[in-house]
Design brief:
CATH architecture of the domain at 63-201: 3-Layer(aba) Sandwich
Strand content: 25-35%
CATH class of the domain at 63-201: Alpha Beta
Number of strands: 8
Radius of gyration: 23 Å
């Protein structure tokens, strides 16, 4: 039987030390979780049945940024993932949720009911949003580029095909300020879509 050569203790320490130090340093830093903020709901909503129902499909978000970690841009072609600053849910679900809430708030006075496509029955219009870019630089600005369409499912007719390229300044150095700027950018996109919806639906 071949006798095993013992591993020198110095080599064992050299191999284990980085992992131990990484665990010790990481254990002392709590992970912070963030969510996008929708627009405030209107103070009052007109009574009566809705004049139209709008369905919002789940947003399409690039895999590069649809991660648990918040993604920032450190260079033109370089992204950074924040291990200790994460989304409370998935970014795709956050964008979809806020779009529904924002459009509902913006169109409430026109008595337009906005819902996710899973809940909307016989909608007058279906909104589809494909996000091409939604990232930013800490302490600088965020970018939101998106293509979006409005479609009449009953007449099987496309009502609008649009693109929005938006920027928002970040008001502070941290991730909280970055996410707040992303929320404002998503609100601006929602306003673009709401204005087009009001035009195509011809609501009072």
């Amino acid at each position: 039987m071949k006798k095993r050569t013992p591993v020198p203790w110095q080599l064992l320490i050299a191999c284990l030390l980085p992992a131990v130090l990484s665990g010790c340093l990481g254990a002392g830093r709590p992970t912070e979780f963030y969510a996008l903020t929708p627009l405030a709901p209107p103070a009052a909503v007109p009574a009566g049945a809705p004049s139209a129902v709008v369905a919002v499909l789940p947003a399409v978000v690039p895999a590069a940024i649809d991660r648990p970690q918040i993604v920032t841009r450190t260079g033109e072609n370089q992204l950074a993932l924040a291990e200790f600053n994460r989304w409370g849910g998935s970014l795709k679900e956050e964008v979809s949720r806020v779009l529904v809430e924002n459009l509902g708030a913006l169109l409430a006075e026109r008595r337009v009911k906005v819902m996710s496509d899973r809940l909307a029955l016989e909608p007058a219009c279906v909104v589809a949003v494909s996000v091409n870019r939604f990232d930013g630089r800490l302490g600088e600005r965020v970018w939101l580029n998106a293509d979006w369409t409005l479609r009449d499912p009953r007449q099987k007719k496309t009502l609008a095909v649009k693109s929005s390229a938006l920027q928002e300044s970040v008001t502070g150095p941290g991730y909280a300020e970055l996410v707040a700027a992303q929320s404002r950018a998503l609100a601006a996109l929602s306003r673009d879509i709401a204005a087009e919806l009001a035009a195509v639906l011809k609501t009072p």
